[in-house]
Write a sequence for this structure.
């Protein structure tokens, strides 16, 4: 799953920066996940799965949204929430409001 910003661009990851701020290396993250560092690198480059991002975020003790470079100059909403176990990516206040209305209509 590729995560896109509101403008349609792929949202870049900043996992190495987050790891460094937590005093960890990518090799240490891989070790905690029980995988080879090369496997971790390959799984994060290009098109990482949400489950892999969630695993990495858990090891680092951060929310998945903190693994992404946030768009500059915008005070908008960017993140992923789980509803009944399914991931929902939100890239704007409008998407959040639409989701809230849809959930309200369901109940």
């Amino acid at each position: 799953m590729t995560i896109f910003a509101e403008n349609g661009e792929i949202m870049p990851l900043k996992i190495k920066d987050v790891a460094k701020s937590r005093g960890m290396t990518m090799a240490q993250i891989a070790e905690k996940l029980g995988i080879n560092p090369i496997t971790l690198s390959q799984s994060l480059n290009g098109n990482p799965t949400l489950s892999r991002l969630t695993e990495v975020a858990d090891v680092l003790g951060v929310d998945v949204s903190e693994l992404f470079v946030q768009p500059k100059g915008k005070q908008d909403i960017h993140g992923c929430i789980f509803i009944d176990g399914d991931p929902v990516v939100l890239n704007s206040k409008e998407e959040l409001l639409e989701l809230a209305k849809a959930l309200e209509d369901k109940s």
Remarks:
- The chain has a mean pLDDT of 84.
- DSSP finds five helices and two strands in the chain.
- The two ends are 29 Å apart (CA to CA).
